[in-house]
Design brief:
The structure is a single chain. The strands form five sheets. Strands 9, 12, 15, 16, 17, 18 and 19 form a seven-stranded mixed β-sheet that branches. Strands 1-8-6-3 form a four-stranded antiparallel β-sheet, with no helix packed on it. Strands 5-4-2-7 form a four-stranded antiparallel β-sheet, with no helix packed on it. It has helices at about 85-100, 105-110, 110-120, 120-130, 135-140, 160-175, 205-220, 230-240, 250-265, 310-325, 400-410, and strands at about 1-5, 15-20, 30, 35-40, 45-50, 55-60, 65, 70-75, 220-230, 270, 275-280, 285-290, 290, 295, 300, 340, 360-365, 370-375, 380-390. The chain has about 425 residues and is an alpha+beta fold. It is built from eleven helices and 19 strands. The chain is globular, with a radius of gyration of 26 Å. Strand 18 (about 370-375) and strand 19 form a beta hairpin. The two termini are about 55 Å apart. Helix 9 packs across helix 11 (about 400-410).
Length: about 425
């Protein structure tokens, strides 16, 4: 009998949520057949069977939070291939009919869940399963801090003693100044005024909410707006678009951003306030925000500066499909230099994107359109694209922000300088 343990699904992933279970007790499974789907911080990952066999016991339930390495199923290896197994198969249903006792057996496995809910004060921390040493947890309890709310700055989001102190200080400052800080407050009971429905956030939505709150509260944002004339780019884009490969403006922008990051290295950096250092990156990886049914994901296109427009276009299409199919892995979402978020396909004239920490800048794209522009004392129609650049004012001054955005606009107005070949 094999105790099937939840395998590692990515670096620094310690827990996951069981989204669905694809098998039942008594099912025959083949090696590499999917047994369940596990949702981690940013991705949903299928977990396959390591062997051929028969499912004898399922120790988890859908919606349950499980630690990596926990036993989730018991599998009788190769049972369906042996003569003994064939005789045993009729006995299993007979046993369940004759003795209903095995049926409640899975229920005790799921029993800890209601137990955890009955004591929210104790379950809140462990339920989120934050990575922190016992001494750090004890220190947080002693000073009245909910460890589950503390943003960790260590590897894999690990929380240190300094992180707890920084969080406590922010709470005190917020209380003194009346600001929002990191504190969370319950919403009013809206059922007083009418019918309501409460829906549990998905794991991805929870992490997105926590991360964007942290980004907004940590980074002093400035957003500058610009407009690029992409009349010539539109001609080039349509010329190279085919039935099998539709070119969008995104790969052109990514290529321009890669060149801009080389010209303005302070945009390809991160701020480490624990050591008061600026970390300059020597690589150019750009995240592309993807709108999915499960929430916003930002897969990273690596080495953008070393790829052609067509190569970048193909990779953007591929990673967007992976994100929408929930096939991206945690490592696909890390190591970005900067982020591009394009809402042009939906509409709008401008917006203020939030910087994706630990990056220091993000470029937003709105819907382009025709407008009259003065050229040589006469009005001519030109196709323009609105751009919104948000950046971290701690290391990027307003003048540099304006220069960066102007550089991007000037470059994209000269598409003939870009490399489109394979």
């Amino acid at each position: 009998m094999l105790d099937f343990k939840l395998p590692e699904v990515g670096e620094n992933i310690e827990r996951g949520n069981i989204v669905s279970i694809a098998v039942a007790v008594g099912d025959t499974v083949k090696k590499d057949q999917d047994l369940l789907e596990l949702e981690t911080d940013k991705a949903s990952v299928p977990v396959p069977s390591p062997v051929d066999g028969v499912i004898k016991e399922i120790l988890v339930a859908e919606g349950q939070d499980v630690a990596i390495g926990s036993v989730v199923m018991k599998i009788e290896e190769g049972a369906f291939g042996s003569p003994a197994a064939k005789k045993a198969e009729p006995q299993a249903p007979a046993a369940t009919k004759a003795a209903p006792a095995p049926k409640p057996a899975p229920q005790p496995a799921a029993a800890p869940k209601p137990a955890a809910q009955s004591a929210p004060a104790k379950a809140k921390g462990p339920q989120k399963h934050v990575p922190a040493a016992p001494s750090v947890r004890r220190f947080a309890r002693e000073i009245g801090i909910d460890i589950a709310q503390v943003p960790g700055t260590g590897r894999g989001g690990r929380i240190s003693m300094d992180d707890v102190k920084t969080y406590a200080k922010a709470l005190n400052q917020a209380a003194a100044g009346g600001g929002g800080g990191f504190a969370q407050r319950p919403v009013p009971d809206f059922s007083t005024w009418g019918e309501v429905e409460r829906v549990k956030m998905s794991k991805i939505r929870q992490v997105t909410a926590d991360h964007l709150s942290f980004c907004w509260q940590t980074i002093p944002h400035v957003t500058q707006f610009g407009k690029a004339d992409i009349t010539e780019l539109e001609k080039l884009r349509k010329k190279y678009s085919t039935k099998d490969r539709k070119l969008t403006v995104t790969p052109f922008l990514l290529k321009v951003m890669a060149s801009a990051l080389k010209t303005f290295p302070q945009f390809n950096a991160s701020v480490d306030m624990t050591t008061h250092e600026i970390v300059y990156k020597k690589f150019i990886n750009i995240g592309v925000a993807v709108d999915t049914d499960n929430g916003l994901l930002v897969p990273v296109i690596r080495d953008v500066d070393k790829k052609t427009i067509l190569q970048i276009n193909d990779e953007v299409v591929a990673v967007a499909a992976k994100a929408r199919d929930r096939k991206v892995m945690p490592d696909d979402l890390r190591g970005g230099s900067m982020t591009l978020t394009n809402l042009g396909g939906i509409g709008g004239t401008s917006f203020t994107p939030i910087v994706n920490w630990p990056e220091v800048a993000i470029l937003g794209v709105s819907r382009g359109g025709w407008e009259p522009v003065y050229e040589n004392s006469q009005l001519v129609p030109r196709f323009t694209l609105p751009l919104s650049l948000s950046y971290d004012h701690r290391i990027i001054d307003g003048a540099d922000g304006a220069r960066f955005l102007k550089w991007v606009c000037d470059a994209i107005e000269q598409p003939f300088m870009m490399e489109l070949s394979e």
